[in-house]
From TrEMBL:
Coiled coil: none annotated. PROSITE patterns: PYR_CT. It catalyses: (3S)-3-hydroxy-3-methylglutaryl-CoA = acetoacetate + acetyl-CoA. Belongs to the HMG-CoA lyase family. One of its GO terms (molecular function) is metal ion binding. It comes from Sus scrofa. It is an enzyme of class 4 (lyase). The keyword Cell inner membrane does not apply. Pathway: Metabolic intermediate metabolism; (S)-3-hydroxy-3-methylglutaryl-CoA degradation; acetoacetate from (S)-3-hydroxy-3-methylglutaryl-CoA: step 1/1. This is hydroxymethylglutaryl-CoA lyase. Its EC number is 4.1.3.4.
Length: 297
């Protein structure tokens, strides 16, 4: 197995699923600015979803326009349809992300359409992005389980991933949306997907509902995946997957990789400060074990 010396980490803001009071726009902007100072190369800033469905993201344009753009840092945004893509580009987006699911029922609940219709929406965005010179990343949800369909076969995940990759996404993030996966399931799923899509175009996106996110991410790393999604303080979840906990905490991922001798280029102390800031703003305890331990030292 090749030695991975530098792992690009993608940081997800992780605020969309929070059902508490709406977070002030300036708080979101400050969080992104603090994260930009940590050395993270990619920070997914916001989601251009309808405020009707996700009120927490109603200020997407203001947030994207308000953040400082650090040299060498990419600030992609999520765009569920062509109209959202157009709004995002008008607001200054230089990279976008689209999403599909390996589950028909989850697609219906999440974006109120069939899987085929979901692919059509992605295709519209990808065609427009190609004309505009905007790179597009793809997400595949429910790769290790679905809240409505239960187990999802690796073959189905591979089929969906191959299709969205062939449509033009430069990278596909495979999401354990409800956090039910284990390293064994991750290995089986990735083995199937890697037969259809090069590992260099894959990333993983693990939720920590059952405490398996770090182990699952390590399994992916050992199989050659070198891009990992995570969220500061372990924030996140999914508005349409009840019971799903947040993403893998960025602090925990950076600590593990540093202990393996892998250079991420991320300043852990600054990351801890960003996590402490947003947790204080939310009046919420961090889900990062590293942050919890650091407070006790």
């Amino acid at each position: 197995m090749a030695t991975v010396r530098k792992v690009p980490l993608r940081r997800l803001v992780g605020l969309a699923s929070l059902r508490a009071n709406i977070i002030p726009t300036l708080t979101k902007i400050k969080l992104v600015d603090m994260l930009s100072e940590t050395g993270l190369p990619v920070i997914e800033v916001t989601s251009f979803v309808s405020p009707k469905w996700v009120p927490q993201m109603a200020d997407h344009t203001e947030v994207l326009k308000g953040i400082q753009k650090f040299p060498g840092v990419n600030y992609p945004v999520l765009t569920p349809n062509l109209r959202a893509f157009q709004t995002a580009v008008a607001a200054g987006a230089k990279e976008v992300a689209v999403f599909v699911a390996a589950s028909e029922l989850f697609t219906k609940k999440n974006v109120n359409c069939s899987t085929d219709e979901s692919f059509q929406r992605c295709d519209e965005i990808l065609k427009a992005a190609r004309v505009a010179g905007i790179p597009v990343r793809g997400y595949v949800s429910c790769v290790l389980g679905c809240p409505y369909e239960g187990k999802i076969s690796p073959a189905k995940v591979a089929k969906v991933t191959k299709k969205i990759y062939s449509m033009g996404c430069y990278e596909i993030s495979l999401g354990d949306t409800i956090g039910v996966g284990t390293p064994g399931l991750m290995k089986a799923m990735l083995s199937a997907v890697m037969q259809e899509v090069p590992v260099s175009a894959l990333a993983v996106h693990c939720h920590d509902t059952y405490g398996q996110a770090l182990a699952n991410t390590l399994m992916a790393l050992q199989m050659g995946v070198s891009v990992m999604d995570s969220s500061v303080a372990g924030l996140g979840g999914c508005p349409f997957a009840q019971g799903a906990s947040g993403n893998l905490a960025t602090e925990d991922l950076v600590y593990m990789l540093a202990g393996m001798g892998i250079d991420t280029g991320v300043n852990l102390q600054k990351l801890l400060e960003a996590g402490a800031f947003i947790c204080q703003a939310l009046n919420k305890k961090t889900s990062s074990r590293v942050a919890q331990a650091s407070c006790k030292l």
